[in-house]
Amino acid sequence: RKEVEQDPGPFNVPEGATVAFNCTYSNSASQSFFWYRQDCRKEPKLLMSVYSSGNEDGRFTAQLNRASQYISLLIRDSKLSDSATYLCVVNDRGSTLGRLYFGRGTQLTVWP
Amino acid sequence: SQTIHQWPATLVQPVGSPLSLECTVEGTSNPNLYWYRQAAGRGLQLLFYSVGIGQISSEVPQNLSASRPQDRQFILSSKKLLLSDSGFYLCAWSDLRVLNTEAFFGQGTRLTVV
Predict the structure, then answer these.
(1) How many secondary structure helices (H) and strands (E) does chain B include?
(2) Collapsing DSSP states into helix, strand and coil, what is residue B22?
(3) Cβ A32–B100 below 8 Å, yes or no?
């Protein structure tokens, strides 16, 4: 079983739509959670960290459900510039190596 | 502020040729360093990570090796490239002294083995 699994996508939505991505992780002791964004042929960049209480950054809302071991990302009022691949990332608890596990990513295309 | 440099940006190499990709980090000390590979349409695969000079751990057996000759320098090498080594190689660093630290990536090297 993979450490981190994501919705396969791709997601194709019109501008202004709301879209949600889900991600599940296998290690219940995982400690840190992130969403990264990767543009075509570019390196991944941190979009937002995910906290236990849930957190919001403008149009983006991230939530964590430890009991069910899943993480979600909600994008409201989608923009053309939101088109990218979104990577779910989990950091193992207690790992002195800072081992990050990446999902394969969910591709989002926002069309006008 | 911290920065990470990775070069070259693109590389086309013949099968059987050697490889050397370099990554350096500035503005921090004793970072954790990582090499990832992303094949076309695939996720990120961790190849090597390092917690200090000369300390390298390999995630998967392969045709590649890594070295860390200096605290902020990480090198990915191969003696003889295979076609299957083609991909997007990314160097990253993280600071375990920061709670819930994320990883920061270099701009990547797109390697095509022909």
Answers:
(1) 0, 11
(2) strand
(3) yes
Q: Which residue type does A24 have? A: T
- Put simply, whether A20 touches B (Cβ < 8 Å) is no
* Spans of chain A below 70 pLDDT: 1, 93-98
Q: What is the pLDDT of residue A98?
A: 63
Give the tokens for residue B15.
């099968």
Q: What is the pLDDT of residues B64-105, one digit of tens each?
A: 999 999 999 999 999 999 999 999 999 999 886 666 678 899
Would the CB atoms of A43 and B106 count as touching at under 8 Å? yes
At position A71, the amino acid (one-letter code) is I
Question: C-alpha distances in angstroms, B103 versus A32, A51, A100, B68, B109?
Answer: 12, 17, 8, 18, 17
pLDDT at A53: 84
| CA A40, chain centre distance (Å) | 16
Give burial (CB, 10 Å; 0-12/13-18/19+) of A10. exposed
